[in-house]
Amino acid sequence: GVVIDSTNAYFEETKNKYVKKIKLVDDTYNTSRYNPHQKYSYLTVFFYSPKPEDLPNPRRIGDILYLRRFSFGKYNDSFQGHYLETQYCSWALLS
After folding, report:
1. Which parts of the chain are coiled coil (predicted)?
2. Cα dihedral 70, 71, 75, 79 sign
3. pTM of the shown model
4. Domain range 2-94, CATH class
């Protein structure tokens, strides 16, 4: 997906981990397509890590983020992806 927004990493005390949220669009899921079942036309991906330097850090809007074996689903009228802490889940950031 193409990065359209990113938060700074912040520490979530209940999870005892750093969290980063990145908003993405792609050919099938973007702001130019109307979807009556979704409130927002982008995917919000959540990353969790004990160290902030292990989280992706997009440098600019338009960077490409490749997600492999993430968990995706609808939550509070938004489409979300979550990093699964397994050896099979991975991501790559292309600037």
Report:
1. none
2. positive
3. 0.84
4. mainly beta
